[in-house]
Every structure is written in structure tokens, then in C-alpha cells.
Amino acid sequence: MNVLIVYAHPEPRSLNGALKDLAVRHLTARGHEVRVSDLYAMGWKAVADGADFLSHDSGERLTYVRASKDAFADGSQSPDIAAEQKQLLWADAVIFQFPLWWFSMPAILKGWIDRVYAYGFAYGVGVHEGERWGDRYGEGSLTGRRAMLSVTMGGRAPHYSDRGVNGALDDLLFPIQHGILFYPGMDVLPPFAAYQVDRLSEEQWPSVAESFKARMDGLFTDTPIPFRRQNGGHYDSQQVLKSGLGHGASGTRIHLVQPNEPEQLPVPLR
Predict the structure, then answer these.
(1) CA-wise closest residue to 161 among 171, 149, 151, 176
(2) How many structural domains comprise the chain?
(3) E strands within the chain?
(4) Do 186 and 269 lie in a common domain?
(5) What residues does the Flavodoxin-like fold domain cover (predicted)?
(6) pTM score > 0.85 for this model?
(7) Can you give the residue range of the structural domain that contains 269?
């Protein structure tokens, strides 16, 4: 299988660098083909602007969404954007390796999403009419692929629990896992998380490495997070969760299919 690792850390000798290198070795040894997009080494341009579109007239007012749509459609995107889109389409699974900085991804990785997720590629896909809001949240151009976050944190695990001061990790990662990965159709695996990484000793590394290798072994077999599909009958015509669903859950968890609920509900004929 083909695995793309999108790696965002400025220091190759960091724990993030070690996890990235371990993933490459371990997955390759298991017979997978692995590619790495090392954003800092690539000098990735994080800022989304008019330079992303080869045909854009710098004298014209820039509407980024419209320019993105036109450039994707006519093949006039910046070459670095087009190259990373090809990487995503090549991959059967994508691993995002990064440190949690200020409760989110590093700016360079967010810039990768902003630029690579072009209109017509990751959003603005499918039919938008009636009660259908296009192919998104479980459908889209990246359907059939798997994705997993591998995230390092300086804080302690209890800080990222339901009652922890930082908030539950799943809630913090919801905009990424649901809004960035599931939106264009990828099946999202539970994240791999490493805590207190700035205090990690050499003696503790083997335990972290073994846990990470176990996750690599389940990359194509582990059960994804059961996010509700937008067009799976769970939401009404205004994309609000239907009455009677989500009981026993709160917050972002209502957007997970609950144990007593079917994955697909009848969708009214239009």
C-alpha cells in the first residue's frame, strides 16, 4: 500500500523527527511504499495568496476561493500545490506528524492545508442542490483513503482528558480530524498521542516506539472514528442532527454514530 507522511517539525533530531523516521523504516519493512512531505525541508510556502495561481492578474482583486476554483480547473495552480495534490491521490493512507502548538497544528502545516485543499479538489465537490450539500463529510475526492494524526505534546495526559484543564484531546483535534480529514472523505483513525515529550528519557523511548509501531501495523485494519456521514440520513435539510439521535452524547461527540444507532438512515426522496 502507499503511505504519505506529511511531516511538520523544524528539527530533524526532535521526537517528531524520530517518529517520522521510525514510521518510514517500519512501514517500508512491512512492504509498503512510503513518501514523505517534509514541509520545513521543502521550504513550504505557508501563505495562501495570489502567487498560488499562475494566471492571476496581480492588478485584479483577489478572491481566493474563485481563483482556486479556476486554477484547479484549468491546470494553472502553482506547481508545488499540484505536486502535493498528486501525492494525496497516490496515497492509500496519510499520516500527519506534528507537535501540538497552541492547541493546533504548526502554521506551516495549516498553510499546506490552505493551499493544497483547492476548490474542486477537497471542497466544492459534488452536486449542491435541494437537500444535498455536495460530497463532503464522508464523501469526496479523498474517499477510500485512511488518515491518522501522530501528535506530540509537552503536557501530561490528564491535562487532555474530559475534565482536564486543556480540554479533551478528541475535542481539540475535532476541527482537524472531522473538519479537515473527514470532510473530503478520508476514514480517520484515532490519533497517536505522545505526552510530556520534552521530558522523555532514552529509557522511555522504546515504549513509545513500540506503541507507535503497533499503530502502524493497524493502519489499514484498525476501526476508524465513527463520524456520521453528511449524506447518511443523520442530518436534516439544514444539516442539523435529527431529533432522536445523539442521546447520551454531548459536544462534538454527537457527531459520532452511537452504539445503538445505524450507520445509514433512510434518506427521503426529493
Answers:
(1) 171
(2) 2
(3) 2-7, 33-38, 93-99, 128-129, 132-133, 146-152, 187-188, 192-194
(4) no
(5) 1-203
(6) yes
(7) 228-270
